[in-house]
Design brief:
398 residues, mainly beta, Beta-galactosidase, Chain A, domain 5, 2 domains, 7-stranded antiparallel β-sheet, 2 helices, 27 strands, 7% helix
Amino acid sequence: MKNTIPFILILLVGLSCSSKPIATIALTVIEDNRKFSLVTLKEDLGLQKEQNYHLVDISSGKMIPLEVRDNMELIFLVRDLEKGTHYFEVREGKYQSSAKAKIEKQDEGYQFYVNDKPVLFYQEKTTLPQDVSEEYYQRSGFIHPLYSPSGQVLTDDFPEGHTHQHAIFNAWVNTRFKGEKVDFWNQHQETGTVAHVDILGVHEGDASATLSTLLSQISLEHGEVLSENWEITLYPFEEFFLFDLFFEQENTSEDTLYILDYHYGGMAFRGSKEWNDADTEHFSNTWSINTSEGHDNESANHTPAKWVTAYGNIDGEEAGLTVFSFPDNFRHPQKIRVHPTMPYWVYAPMVDGEFVIAPGEKYRGRYRYYVHQGAGNEEVIQSILDDLEKPLEVSVQH
């Protein structure tokens, strides 16, 4: 048994060396060493989606899984890149790293894993706790629970004091539609809600796992206003969790939706019940907020933020997450709403004034979630920010 692992490694290296290079990918770091980088590129190398491929680092001989997605999009993860140019050969054959991102269908929705560690759950089925009698609070189409790498639950759903909030969720608040106010966030106002509609696809690859869903932002008086697609993509890191959430809303009605100037609304995070002082049974401590611009709990509200870290003590250990707004998001860096007493915050672009989604128009947003123990690693945070703001220069030699 002791000789099995070396034999497998030798076999993998042998397979890699026996296959001819298909192409060479050059990655150039202009400034600031990268702790890790997530690389996506569209390049027609004649690769087949059904076949297996990997990369070989020419300088070290290390192998890296290479995933071929739709439309010839290639995706792979690289670590510890110093300033300069690094070369990787594309070769045929499968190489599986020690970490694997997976999605499992369950009764209520879809569970994401890295190996056997649960990461997040997408709530497909409409749910309502037994202790909540008001049916207008029923909800679907959100993420809960979100776990830390050590297994703590970072989010809260139907929280004490704010039953209408749902862990990681997306909803507009102060809007006007057909001359009337519609609030998709505060369900108890009984003017609007958000619901899951359909599963559009599930994909598992060597470098990612993606769930695509369809949601609807609904006026209770007039029906659907916005059709909303979500893509949740998890990447296979073991020491922390990393996933992207992309959404696209399309106005499917014949009337303009006005998102009015207001102090909150958008893509939100509701933190642990241990951070909620209204929950007397579970409250244990107040969370901490840090932002890219150096703000904390006291000063962060309605300030622009490229990233926001929220963390605190859960089950006796600190854990949290850092959320990054992509540079091509509307009004980036968006201003954030941080509640003065409750553990929730939200990217809220309407803080800078009214905007509209006209019939047939689309509104998009993309966010990256870095889930960690403690307050997060500063090097990792900087590396993610650099990846978003200063992507690696990529060239391909056929």
